[in-house]
Amino acid sequence: MTHPISRRRAIGLGLLGVGSLGLGVAGVASSGLRSGPSAANASGGAPATSWSEPTVLASSGGVLTFDLTVSEATVDVAGTSARMLAYNGTVPGPTLHVRPGDTLRVHLVNRLDQPTNLHTHGLVVSARGNGDNPFVSVEPGESFDYEISLPDDHPHGVFWYHPHRHGFVADQVFGGLYGAIVVDEEEWSQRPPRVVVVSDVTLAGGAVASVSDAERLQGRVGDVVLTNGLAAPPLAVPSGGTERLLIVNACVSRYLDLGGLAMTVRGLDSGSFVPPRTVDRLVLAPGNRADVLVEGPDRPVALVARAYDRGAGGMGMMGAVEQESDATILTLVPDAGAGPTAAAAPAKSPPRDLRNGDIDHARTLTFTMGMGGGMRFLIDGRPFDPDRVDQTVDIGTVEEWTLANATMMGHPFHLHIWPMQLVDHNGVDVRDVVDVPAGRSVRVRIAFDRFPGRTVYHCHILDHEDLGMMGVIEAS
Predict the structure, then answer these.
(1) Distance between CA atoms of 399 and 319, rounded to whole angstroms?
(2) Angle ∠(180,182,187) on CA atoms, nearest 5
(3) Which residues does the chain have with pLDDT short of 50?
(4) Where are the beta strands (DSSP E) in 154-286?
(5) DSSP 421-444
(6) How confident is the prediction for the chain on average, in pLDDT?
(7) Which among 55, 104, 380, 437 has the fewest CB atoms less than 10 Å away?
(8) Residue 428 pLDDT
(9) What is the DSSP string of 305-322?
Protein backbone atom coordinates (compact mmCIF):
# COMPACT_ATOMS: atom_id res chain seq x y z
CA MET A 1 0.00 0.00 0.00
CA THR A 2 1.23 3.48 -0.86
CA HIS A 3 0.38 6.37 1.45
CA PRO A 4 -0.18 9.76 -0.20
CA ILE A 5 1.84 12.85 0.63
CA SER A 6 1.62 16.39 -0.67
CA ARG A 7 2.81 17.12 -4.20
CA ARG A 8 5.67 19.26 -2.85
CA ARG A 9 6.84 16.40 -0.65
CA ALA A 10 6.57 13.78 -3.39
CA ILE A 11 10.24 12.97 -3.32
CA GLY A 12 9.97 9.33 -4.33
CA LEU A 13 12.46 8.10 -6.89
CA GLY A 14 11.01 6.55 -10.01
CA LEU A 15 9.85 7.73 -13.41
CA LEU A 16 10.01 11.50 -13.03
CA GLY A 17 7.92 12.44 -16.03
CA VAL A 18 8.68 11.91 -19.71
CA GLY A 19 12.32 11.19 -20.39
CA SER A 20 13.24 10.95 -16.70
CA LEU A 21 14.37 8.14 -14.45
CA GLY A 22 14.77 7.71 -10.71
CA LEU A 23 15.54 5.06 -8.13
CA GLY A 24 12.49 4.08 -6.11
CA VAL A 25 8.75 4.47 -6.66
CA ALA A 26 6.98 6.40 -9.39
CA GLY A 27 5.37 9.78 -8.87
CA VAL A 28 7.89 12.51 -8.08
CA ALA A 29 6.70 15.98 -9.06
CA SER A 30 8.91 18.57 -10.68
CA SER A 31 7.76 21.05 -8.03
CA GLY A 32 10.07 19.20 -5.65
CA LEU A 33 12.94 21.05 -7.30
CA ARG A 34 13.94 24.61 -6.58
CA SER A 35 16.12 26.71 -8.79
CA GLY A 36 19.55 27.73 -7.59
CA PRO A 37 22.27 30.09 -8.75
CA SER A 38 24.13 29.50 -11.98
CA ALA A 39 25.42 25.97 -11.63
CA ALA A 40 28.77 26.73 -13.21
CA ASN A 41 30.47 27.48 -9.89
CA ALA A 42 27.75 26.72 -7.37
CA SER A 43 29.52 23.61 -6.14
CA GLY A 44 32.02 25.75 -4.25
CA GLY A 45 35.80 25.71 -4.46
CA ALA A 46 37.82 26.61 -7.52
CA PRO A 47 36.54 24.89 -10.68
CA ALA A 48 39.05 22.34 -11.93
CA THR A 49 40.93 22.99 -15.17
CA SER A 50 41.46 19.32 -16.08
CA TRP A 51 39.95 15.88 -15.56
CA SER A 52 41.41 13.38 -13.10
CA GLU A 53 40.48 9.91 -11.91
CA PRO A 54 41.64 7.67 -9.05
CA THR A 55 44.42 5.13 -9.55
CA VAL A 56 43.09 1.79 -10.81
CA LEU A 57 44.05 -1.44 -9.03
CA ALA A 58 43.19 -4.39 -11.29
CA SER A 59 43.01 -8.08 -10.49
CA SER A 60 45.42 -10.55 -12.05
CA GLY A 61 45.02 -14.31 -12.21
CA GLY A 62 41.71 -14.12 -10.35
CA VAL A 63 43.06 -12.19 -7.34
CA LEU A 64 43.45 -8.56 -6.33
CA THR A 65 45.80 -8.24 -3.36
CA PHE A 66 46.67 -4.81 -1.96
CA ASP A 67 47.24 -2.72 1.16
CA LEU A 68 44.65 -0.10 2.06
CA THR A 69 45.87 2.39 4.65
CA VAL A 70 43.40 4.67 6.42
CA SER A 71 44.94 7.90 7.68
CA GLU A 72 44.67 11.66 7.84
CA ALA A 73 46.42 13.31 4.91
CA THR A 74 46.82 16.70 3.33
CA VAL A 75 45.25 16.40 -0.11
CA ASP A 76 44.50 18.72 -2.99
CA VAL A 77 40.74 18.97 -3.12
CA ALA A 78 38.46 21.46 -4.88
CA GLY A 79 41.43 23.59 -5.85
CA THR A 80 42.90 23.91 -2.36
CA SER A 81 44.88 21.90 0.18
CA ALA A 82 42.93 20.43 3.05
CA ARG A 83 43.40 17.91 5.82
CA MET A 84 41.03 15.00 5.15
CA LEU A 85 40.72 11.30 5.79
CA ALA A 86 42.16 9.24 2.95
CA TYR A 87 42.67 5.74 1.62
CA ASN A 88 46.32 5.37 0.59
CA GLY A 89 46.69 9.14 0.79
CA THR A 90 44.10 10.05 -1.85
CA VAL A 91 40.48 11.23 -2.00
CA PRO A 92 38.81 9.21 -3.45
CA GLY A 93 40.70 5.99 -2.79
CA PRO A 94 41.86 3.76 -5.65
CA THR A 95 39.34 2.23 -8.04
CA LEU A 96 39.21 -1.57 -7.76
CA HIS A 97 38.69 -3.36 -11.10
CA VAL A 98 37.74 -7.03 -10.70
CA ARG A 99 35.95 -9.81 -12.56
CA PRO A 100 33.25 -12.29 -11.51
CA GLY A 101 34.91 -15.13 -9.64
CA ASP A 102 37.81 -12.98 -8.40
CA THR A 103 38.98 -12.73 -4.79
CA LEU A 104 39.77 -9.43 -3.06
CA ARG A 105 42.52 -9.68 -0.44
CA VAL A 106 42.75 -6.37 1.39
CA HIS A 107 45.20 -5.63 4.18
CA LEU A 108 43.43 -2.73 5.94
CA VAL A 109 45.71 -0.63 8.16
CA ASN A 110 44.09 1.84 10.57
CA ARG A 111 46.21 4.91 11.32
CA LEU A 112 43.29 6.94 12.65
CA ASP A 113 42.61 7.67 16.32
CA GLN A 114 39.21 5.95 16.04
CA PRO A 115 38.01 2.50 14.93
CA THR A 116 37.09 1.76 11.34
CA ASN A 117 36.41 -1.18 9.01
CA LEU A 118 35.54 -1.84 5.35
CA HIS A 119 32.27 -2.44 3.50
CA THR A 120 32.17 -3.40 -0.19
CA HIS A 121 28.82 -1.79 -0.93
CA GLY A 122 26.63 -3.75 -3.33
CA LEU A 123 28.89 -6.75 -3.82
CA VAL A 124 26.99 -10.05 -3.65
CA VAL A 125 29.41 -11.79 -1.31
CA SER A 126 29.54 -13.48 2.09
CA ALA A 127 29.42 -11.39 5.26
CA ARG A 128 31.01 -14.06 7.43
CA GLY A 129 34.42 -13.92 9.10
CA ASN A 130 36.82 -11.72 7.17
CA GLY A 131 34.37 -11.22 4.31
CA ASP A 132 32.13 -8.16 3.96
CA ASN A 133 31.49 -8.22 7.70
CA PRO A 134 30.03 -4.99 9.17
CA PHE A 135 30.63 -6.21 12.74
CA VAL A 136 34.43 -6.18 12.40
CA SER A 137 36.11 -3.33 14.28
CA VAL A 138 39.67 -2.41 13.35
CA GLU A 139 40.95 -0.40 16.30
CA PRO A 140 43.46 2.50 16.09
CA GLY A 141 46.93 1.25 15.22
CA GLU A 142 45.64 -2.20 14.22
CA SER A 143 45.18 -3.95 10.89
CA PHE A 144 42.83 -6.55 9.47
CA ASP A 145 43.03 -8.91 6.50
CA TYR A 146 39.85 -9.12 4.44
CA GLU A 147 39.28 -11.91 1.92
CA ILE A 148 36.17 -11.30 -0.17
CA SER A 149 35.33 -13.84 -2.88
CA LEU A 150 33.01 -12.91 -5.73
CA PRO A 151 30.89 -15.77 -7.11
CA ASP A 152 31.39 -16.78 -10.74
CA ASP A 153 27.97 -15.36 -11.64
CA HIS A 154 28.45 -12.03 -9.85
CA PRO A 155 26.57 -9.26 -11.69
CA HIS A 156 28.54 -6.73 -13.68
CA GLY A 157 28.29 -3.14 -12.53
CA VAL A 158 29.76 -0.28 -10.54
CA PHE A 159 29.93 -0.67 -6.76
CA TRP A 160 31.92 1.13 -4.05
CA TYR A 161 33.67 0.73 -0.73
CA HIS A 162 33.59 2.78 2.47
CA PRO A 163 33.83 2.36 6.26
CA HIS A 164 30.95 0.76 8.15
CA ARG A 165 31.99 0.95 11.80
CA HIS A 166 28.75 1.95 13.52
CA GLY A 167 28.84 5.40 15.12
CA PHE A 168 31.70 6.60 12.89
CA VAL A 169 30.36 5.98 9.39
CA ALA A 170 29.05 9.43 8.48
CA ASP A 171 32.10 11.28 9.82
CA GLN A 172 34.52 8.98 8.02
CA VAL A 173 32.74 9.02 4.66
CA PHE A 174 32.22 12.80 4.86
CA GLY A 175 35.91 13.07 5.74
CA GLY A 176 37.00 11.39 2.49
CA LEU A 177 36.89 7.59 2.88
CA TYR A 178 35.30 6.14 -0.27
CA GLY A 179 36.30 4.54 -3.56
CA ALA A 180 34.79 2.77 -6.57
CA ILE A 181 34.64 -0.94 -7.39
CA VAL A 182 33.90 -2.03 -10.97
CA VAL A 183 33.01 -5.63 -11.77
CA ASP A 184 33.15 -6.63 -15.44
CA GLU A 185 35.10 -8.77 -17.87
CA GLU A 186 36.45 -5.91 -19.95
CA GLU A 187 40.02 -5.00 -20.82
CA TRP A 188 40.84 -1.49 -19.60
CA SER A 189 44.27 -1.07 -21.17
CA GLN A 190 42.71 1.09 -23.88
CA ARG A 191 39.78 3.49 -23.61
CA PRO A 192 38.47 2.51 -20.15
CA PRO A 193 35.15 3.95 -18.91
CA ARG A 194 35.20 7.18 -16.92
CA VAL A 195 34.84 6.59 -13.19
CA VAL A 196 32.85 9.45 -11.62
CA VAL A 197 32.87 9.37 -7.80
CA VAL A 198 30.63 12.18 -6.52
CA SER A 199 30.91 13.28 -2.89
CA ASP A 200 30.47 16.43 -0.85
CA VAL A 201 32.26 18.06 2.05
CA THR A 202 32.42 21.26 4.06
CA LEU A 203 35.90 22.66 4.65
CA ALA A 204 36.88 25.16 7.33
CA GLY A 205 40.35 26.29 8.31
CA GLY A 206 42.02 23.83 5.95
CA ALA A 207 40.22 20.78 7.34
CA VAL A 208 36.87 19.03 7.28
CA ALA A 209 34.39 21.10 9.25
CA SER A 210 32.60 19.66 12.26
CA VAL A 211 28.83 19.26 12.02
CA SER A 212 26.07 20.33 14.37
CA ASP A 213 23.49 18.09 16.00
CA ALA A 214 20.84 19.62 13.73
CA GLU A 215 22.89 18.71 10.66
CA ARG A 216 23.21 15.13 11.87
CA LEU A 217 19.47 14.89 12.43
CA GLN A 218 18.67 16.19 8.97
CA GLY A 219 21.55 14.36 7.31
CA ARG A 220 24.54 16.54 6.57
CA VAL A 221 25.05 18.13 3.15
CA GLY A 222 28.46 19.55 2.29
CA ASP A 223 29.08 23.02 0.90
CA VAL A 224 31.43 21.67 -1.78
CA VAL A 225 30.43 19.00 -4.31
CA LEU A 226 33.38 16.96 -5.54
CA THR A 227 33.87 14.78 -8.60
CA ASN A 228 36.92 12.59 -8.05
CA GLY A 229 38.06 15.23 -5.54
CA LEU A 230 37.64 18.10 -8.01
CA ALA A 231 35.06 20.85 -8.28
CA ALA A 232 33.14 20.92 -11.58
CA PRO A 233 35.94 19.35 -13.68
CA PRO A 234 35.90 19.52 -17.51
CA LEU A 235 35.82 16.21 -19.39
CA ALA A 236 37.16 16.36 -22.94
CA VAL A 237 35.12 14.23 -25.35
CA PRO A 238 34.96 14.02 -29.15
CA SER A 239 31.95 15.85 -30.56
CA GLY A 240 29.40 13.22 -31.58
CA GLY A 241 31.39 10.46 -29.87
CA THR A 242 30.19 8.28 -27.01
CA GLU A 243 31.44 8.58 -23.45
CA ARG A 244 30.70 5.98 -20.77
CA LEU A 245 30.33 7.28 -17.20
CA LEU A 246 30.27 5.04 -14.11
CA ILE A 247 28.70 7.32 -11.50
CA VAL A 248 28.85 6.65 -7.75
CA ASN A 249 26.85 8.75 -5.28
CA ALA A 250 29.27 8.63 -2.33
CA CYS A 251 27.58 11.52 -0.49
CA VAL A 252 26.51 11.04 3.12
CA SER A 253 23.02 12.48 2.55
CA ARG A 254 22.86 14.36 -0.76
CA TYR A 255 20.57 13.08 -3.49
CA LEU A 256 21.96 13.62 -6.98
CA ASP A 257 19.14 14.89 -9.21
CA LEU A 258 21.13 14.77 -12.43
CA GLY A 259 20.15 16.68 -15.56
CA GLY A 260 21.36 19.07 -18.22
CA LEU A 261 22.09 16.49 -20.93
CA ALA A 262 20.67 13.28 -22.38
CA MET A 263 21.90 10.06 -20.75
CA THR A 264 21.42 6.48 -21.89
CA VAL A 265 21.13 4.43 -18.70
CA ARG A 266 22.62 0.94 -19.05
CA GLY A 267 22.65 -0.17 -15.45
CA LEU A 268 21.68 0.92 -11.93
CA ASP A 269 23.25 -0.49 -8.77
CA SER A 270 23.65 -4.23 -9.29
CA GLY A 271 20.84 -4.60 -11.86
CA SER A 272 20.25 -3.48 -15.42
CA PHE A 273 17.46 -2.10 -17.53
CA VAL A 274 16.88 -4.19 -20.63
CA PRO A 275 16.95 -2.50 -23.06
CA PRO A 276 18.85 0.64 -21.96
CA ARG A 277 16.77 3.84 -21.64
CA THR A 278 17.58 7.39 -22.69
CA VAL A 279 16.54 10.02 -20.13
CA ASP A 280 17.19 13.66 -19.41
CA ARG A 281 16.81 13.34 -15.64
CA LEU A 282 18.23 10.71 -13.29
CA VAL A 283 17.96 10.71 -9.50
CA LEU A 284 20.54 8.81 -7.45
CA ALA A 285 19.93 8.51 -3.71
CA PRO A 286 22.95 8.25 -1.39
CA GLY A 287 24.71 4.97 -2.19
CA ASN A 288 23.14 4.51 -5.65
CA ARG A 289 25.24 4.09 -8.79
CA ALA A 290 24.62 4.32 -12.53
CA ASP A 291 26.29 3.16 -15.75
CA VAL A 292 25.38 5.73 -18.44
CA LEU A 293 26.38 6.75 -21.94
CA VAL A 294 26.50 10.39 -23.02
CA GLU A 295 27.16 11.87 -26.45
CA GLY A 296 29.95 14.36 -26.98
CA PRO A 297 28.39 17.79 -27.64
CA ASP A 298 29.45 20.46 -30.12
CA ARG A 299 29.69 23.01 -27.30
CA PRO A 300 30.40 22.72 -23.55
CA VAL A 301 27.46 21.18 -21.65
CA ALA A 302 27.27 20.67 -17.88
CA LEU A 303 25.91 17.65 -16.03
CA VAL A 304 24.20 19.31 -13.08
CA ALA A 305 22.93 17.97 -9.75
CA ARG A 306 19.92 20.11 -8.94
CA ALA A 307 18.89 20.99 -5.42
CA TYR A 308 16.54 18.29 -4.15
CA ASP A 309 13.74 18.42 -1.61
CA ARG A 310 13.91 15.29 0.54
CA GLY A 311 11.27 16.23 3.10
CA ALA A 312 11.05 17.87 6.51
CA GLY A 313 12.78 17.01 9.75
CA GLY A 314 9.55 16.18 11.53
CA MET A 315 8.40 16.21 15.14
CA GLY A 316 8.34 20.01 15.10
CA MET A 317 12.08 20.20 15.77
CA MET A 318 13.53 20.85 12.32
CA GLY A 319 12.58 22.70 9.19
CA ALA A 320 12.60 21.49 5.62
CA VAL A 321 15.57 19.32 4.67
CA GLU A 322 16.80 20.97 1.51
CA GLN A 323 20.15 21.14 -0.20
CA GLU A 324 21.88 24.47 -0.55
CA SER A 325 22.09 24.92 -4.31
CA ASP A 326 22.57 23.32 -7.68
CA ALA A 327 26.05 21.99 -8.41
CA THR A 328 27.95 21.08 -11.56
CA ILE A 329 29.18 17.48 -11.50
CA LEU A 330 31.27 17.81 -14.67
CA THR A 331 31.26 19.68 -17.98
CA LEU A 332 31.54 17.86 -21.30
CA VAL A 333 33.93 19.86 -23.47
CA PRO A 334 34.22 19.02 -27.20
CA ASP A 335 37.76 18.10 -28.19
CA ALA A 336 38.61 16.63 -31.61
CA GLY A 337 41.74 15.07 -30.12
CA ALA A 338 39.92 13.12 -27.41
CA GLY A 339 39.15 9.44 -27.96
CA PRO A 340 35.78 7.95 -27.01
CA THR A 341 35.63 5.37 -24.22
CA ALA A 342 34.81 1.74 -24.91
CA ALA A 343 31.23 0.73 -24.23
CA ALA A 344 30.76 -3.02 -24.19
CA ALA A 345 27.25 -4.40 -24.39
CA PRO A 346 25.32 -4.49 -21.10
CA ALA A 347 24.92 -7.71 -19.15
CA LYS A 348 23.84 -10.62 -21.37
CA SER A 349 20.69 -11.49 -19.45
CA PRO A 350 18.45 -9.67 -16.97
CA PRO A 351 18.31 -10.72 -13.32
CA ARG A 352 15.73 -13.26 -12.22
CA ASP A 353 12.21 -11.82 -12.17
CA LEU A 354 10.66 -12.38 -8.75
CA ARG A 355 7.49 -10.32 -9.17
CA ASN A 356 5.04 -12.98 -10.33
CA GLY A 357 6.40 -15.98 -8.46
CA ASP A 358 5.42 -17.35 -5.08
CA ILE A 359 6.82 -15.87 -1.89
CA ASP A 360 7.70 -17.79 1.24
CA HIS A 361 7.23 -14.97 3.71
CA ALA A 362 6.08 -11.33 3.87
CA ARG A 363 7.12 -8.77 6.45
CA THR A 364 6.96 -5.02 7.00
CA LEU A 365 9.78 -2.78 8.24
CA THR A 366 8.71 0.64 9.52
CA PHE A 367 11.01 3.68 9.81
CA THR A 368 10.26 6.07 12.66
CA MET A 369 11.90 8.69 14.85
CA GLY A 370 11.79 9.01 18.62
CA MET A 371 13.41 10.46 21.70
CA GLY A 372 15.77 8.80 24.12
CA GLY A 373 18.93 10.67 25.07
CA GLY A 374 18.29 12.90 22.07
CA MET A 375 16.58 12.24 18.75
CA ARG A 376 16.88 8.65 17.60
CA PHE A 377 16.17 7.03 14.25
CA LEU A 378 14.41 3.68 14.53
CA ILE A 379 13.30 0.65 12.53
CA ASP A 380 10.24 -1.10 13.97
CA GLY A 381 10.49 1.14 17.02
CA ARG A 382 14.00 0.02 17.99
CA PRO A 383 17.46 1.54 17.58
CA PHE A 384 20.34 -0.59 16.31
CA ASP A 385 21.76 -3.20 18.67
CA PRO A 386 24.58 -5.35 17.23
CA ASP A 387 23.80 -8.12 19.74
CA ARG A 388 20.14 -8.43 18.71
CA VAL A 389 18.90 -10.23 15.58
CA ASP A 390 15.93 -8.33 14.16
CA GLN A 391 15.09 -10.48 11.13
CA THR A 392 15.68 -14.21 10.62
CA VAL A 393 15.43 -15.62 7.10
CA ASP A 394 15.91 -19.04 5.52
CA ILE A 395 18.38 -19.67 2.72
CA GLY A 396 16.56 -20.76 -0.44
CA THR A 397 13.46 -18.62 0.16
CA VAL A 398 11.96 -15.55 -1.52
CA GLU A 399 10.42 -12.86 0.68
CA GLU A 400 8.40 -9.73 0.05
CA TRP A 401 9.22 -6.77 2.26
CA THR A 402 7.11 -3.67 2.63
CA LEU A 403 9.34 -0.73 3.56
CA ALA A 404 7.12 1.80 5.33
CA ASN A 405 8.33 5.33 6.10
CA ALA A 406 6.33 6.94 8.92
CA THR A 407 8.58 10.01 9.08
CA MET A 408 8.51 13.33 7.21
CA MET A 409 11.86 12.82 5.48
CA GLY A 410 13.07 10.34 2.88
CA HIS A 411 15.11 7.28 3.88
CA PRO A 412 17.11 5.38 1.22
CA PHE A 413 17.10 1.75 2.40
CA HIS A 414 20.17 -0.47 1.89
CA LEU A 415 20.26 -4.23 2.42
CA HIS A 416 23.70 -5.80 2.46
CA ILE A 417 24.50 -8.91 0.37
CA TRP A 418 21.08 -9.65 -1.19
CA PRO A 419 19.77 -7.35 -3.97
CA MET A 420 16.16 -6.17 -3.85
CA GLN A 421 13.71 -6.15 -6.76
CA LEU A 422 11.06 -3.45 -6.92
CA VAL A 423 7.60 -5.00 -7.13
CA ASP A 424 5.57 -2.06 -8.47
CA HIS A 425 7.78 -1.31 -11.46
CA ASN A 426 7.76 -1.93 -15.19
CA GLY A 427 10.46 -4.43 -16.01
CA VAL A 428 13.00 -6.22 -13.87
CA ASP A 429 14.48 -3.54 -11.61
CA VAL A 430 17.05 -4.70 -9.06
CA ARG A 431 18.73 -2.39 -6.54
CA ASP A 432 20.70 -2.51 -3.32
CA VAL A 433 19.54 0.99 -2.29
CA VAL A 434 15.82 1.74 -2.57
CA ASP A 435 14.52 5.17 -1.65
CA VAL A 436 11.45 5.21 0.60
CA PRO A 437 9.87 8.68 0.40
CA ALA A 438 8.41 10.52 3.35
CA GLY A 439 5.06 9.10 4.39
CA ARG A 440 5.13 6.38 1.73
CA SER A 441 5.86 2.69 1.43
CA VAL A 442 7.67 0.58 -1.17
CA ARG A 443 7.44 -3.17 -1.82
CA VAL A 444 10.50 -5.22 -2.72
CA ARG A 445 11.19 -8.92 -3.22
CA ILE A 446 14.41 -10.58 -2.15
CA ALA A 447 15.84 -13.98 -3.06
CA PHE A 448 17.83 -15.25 -0.07
CA ASP A 449 19.52 -17.79 -2.30
CA ARG A 450 22.96 -18.04 -0.65
CA PHE A 451 25.39 -16.67 1.94
CA PRO A 452 24.21 -17.73 5.40
CA GLY A 453 25.33 -15.49 8.23
CA ARG A 454 24.66 -12.15 9.92
CA THR A 455 24.71 -8.74 8.31
CA VAL A 456 22.70 -5.48 8.40
CA TYR A 457 20.14 -3.30 6.66
CA HIS A 458 19.87 0.45 7.24
CA CYS A 459 19.09 3.95 6.05
CA HIS A 460 21.84 5.15 3.72
CA ILE A 461 21.62 8.68 4.98
CA LEU A 462 24.64 7.74 7.02
CA ASP A 463 23.94 10.11 9.92
CA HIS A 464 20.62 8.31 10.39
CA GLU A 465 22.39 4.96 10.37
CA ASP A 466 24.79 6.18 13.07
CA LEU A 467 21.82 7.50 15.05
CA GLY A 468 20.17 4.08 15.14
CA MET A 469 18.27 3.41 11.88
CA MET A 470 19.82 -0.01 11.28
CA GLY A 471 18.92 -3.62 12.02
CA VAL A 472 20.53 -7.06 12.00
CA ILE A 473 19.46 -9.87 9.68
CA GLU A 474 20.57 -13.49 10.01
CA ALA A 475 20.21 -16.08 7.25
CA SER A 476 20.54 -19.80 7.83
Answers:
(1) 37
(2) 130
(3) 1-18, 24-42, 315-317
(4) 157-162, 179-183, 194-201, 203-204, 207-208, 224-227, 234-237, 242-249, 256-268, 271-284
(5) EESSSSS--EESEEEE-TT-EEEE
(6) 88
(7) 55
(8) 83
(9) EE-BEEEEEETTTEEEEE
